[in-house]
Amino acid sequence: MRGHSAWPLWVVLSLVAALSVWGWSLHPEHGGRWLARMLVLPLMLGVVAWRISPRGERTREERRILEWHRIVFTFVGLIVALDLASQLSISAGLLDAVWNEPRLRVEGLLLGAGVAVWGNRLPTLLSPWPLGAEPFEWQRVHRFVGRLTLVAGVGLVLVWLTFPLAPAQTTTAWIVGGVAVTAVVRKLVSVATPVAGNSPSSVRASRSR
Predict the structure, then answer these.
(1) 53 and 153 together in one domain
(2) pLDDT by residue (tens digit) across 146-202?
(3) What is the pLDDT of residue 65?
(4) CA 146, 148, 151, 152: dihedral to nearest 10 degrees?
(5) pLDDT value for 161
(6) How far apart are CA 39 and CA 191, in angstroms?
(7) Which residue segment(s) compose the domain that 40 sits in?
(8) Which of 95, 113, 144 lies at the terminal end of a domain, its last residue?
(9) Contact in structure between 195 and 136 (CB atoms under 8 Å)
(10) Is 85:19 a contact under the CB 8 Å cutoff?
(11) Are residues 172 and 157 in the same domain?
């Protein structure tokens, strides 16, 4: 990851790592948990970057997709850092426990807003595959998932603005889980369905033009 656009992500990842080290010092009995929090986001981003371009050579659209993933991971890292900082501050006695509910509501609102923005942005990402070589209907799947997550994000914001704490947490889990399962199923259906124009004869015809 090179260029000026990568530095906010590295700052956030470094902040999460520093907070995890602090948590490890306060609760050494959960060392594995703190280590996982330090490593999970960098490892996930590495896998995403490799999946986008296994050979390391990126097209213009692949660079746009990777740049969008950097923004998403930066936002997720900020929520994780906020959660860790507030939890550890309460655990260390720097904040009163009364701040627990407000910090959970702020995190829920940020999650909902982030999901809505992600859903609105998703359909604008163009396919990295050439015409006639897409393994699934990229645009249709992304439009469907984008609309679904946009509605889900708005719903999450409303939930965290109006629901009591415990029902808000339960409803959030159901919404996020339902959206994730629906999105995966929609993509699998598209992968299993031949894409119009992707038959061997049509691909040969498009190459001969």
Answers:
(1) no
(2) 999 999 999 999 999 999 999 999 999 999 999 999 999 988 888 788 665 554 444
(3) 81
(4) -110
(5) 96
(6) 31
(7) 1-95
(8) 95
(9) yes
(10) yes
(11) yes
Residue among 141, 153, 132 at smallest CA distance from 199:
132
Residues 7, 42 share a domain: yes
Cβ proximity of 160 and 109 under 8 Å: yes
Q: Are residues 138 and 169 in the same domain?
A: yes
Residues 102 and 81 in one domain: no
Does 47 share its domain with 109? no
DSSP state of 127: P
Cβ burial 121-131 (10 Å sphere, 16+ → b, else e): bbbebebbeee
In this structure, the number of other CB atoms found within 10 A of the CB of residue 40 comes to 12
Burial class (CB in 10 A: 0-12, 13-18, 19+), 82: middle
- Over residues 90-115, the mean pLDDT reads 90
User: What single string gives the DSSP state of each residue in 17-39?
Assistant: HHHHHHHHHH-GGGHHHHHHHHH
- Chosen domain end from 46, 75, 95: 95
**Are 67 and 40 in the same domain?**
yes
Q: Do 72 and 110 share a structural domain?
A: no
Where is 168: in which H helix or E strand?
helix 165-192
| Number of domains the chain contains | 2
Q: Give 20-71 pLDDT, tens digit per residue.
A: 999 998 888 888 888 988 888 888 888 877 776 666 667 778 778 888 888 8
Beta-carbon contacts of residue 147 (< 8 Å; ≥ 6 apart): 119, 123
